[in-house]
Specification:
Blueprint: H1 3-30, E1 46-53, E2 59-65, E3 68-75, E4 78-86, H2 89-102
Antiparallel strand pairs: 1-2, 2-3, 3-4
Main location: other
Protein name: Flagellar assembly protein FliO
Keywords: Bacterial flagellum, Cell membrane, Membrane, Transmembrane, Transmembrane helix
C-alpha cells in the first residue's frame, strides 16, 4: 500500500466516524425520547439512595422519587416491591410529630 491508499483509508474512517456522530446527535434530538423535558442537575426527581447485595443474584435497592422512598428487591428474572411510601429519615421526626399532634400514633 502506498501513501495515497493510507490517506484514503484515514479519510474514509473519519467520514464514517463523523456520520456515526451525526446519527447519534440526530437520534438524541429527534429520537424516541424527543420532547422530554431535560432537567438540570439539581432538579432530579429520581435517585438511588442505597443498594445492598443479599447474595450473588439478589439485591435490595432503596429508591427515592419525589421525596418518597421505595424498597425494591431486584433479582434475575424477578423484581418485587417490598415496601412503598417510606418516609425518608430527615422527614421521619416531622411525620412522627404530626401523627402525635393528630393523635394517630400506633
Amino acid at each position: 500500500m502506498d501513501a495515497a491508499n493510507y490517506l484514503r483509508l484515514i479519510l474514509a474512517l473519519g467520514l464514517v466516524l463523523a456520520l456515526i456522530g451525526l446519527f447519534a446527535l440526530l437520534l438524541r434530538r429527534y429520537g424516541p425520547v424527543a420532547g422530554l423535558a431535560v432537567r438540570r442537575k439539581g432538579d432530579k426527581r429520581l435517585g438511588v439512595v442505597e443498594v445492598m447485595a443479599l447474595d450473588a443474584r439478589r439485591r435490595l435497592v432503596l429508591v427515592r422519587r419525589d421525596g418518597v422512598e421505595h424498597l425494591l428487591l431486584l433479582g434475575i428474572g424477578e423484581d418485587r416491591v417490598i415496601e412503598t411510601g417510606i418516609t425518608p429519615p430527615g422527614d421521619f421526626k416531622m411525620a412522627l410529630d404530626r401523627q402525635e399532634k393528630a393523635g394517630t400514633t400506633s
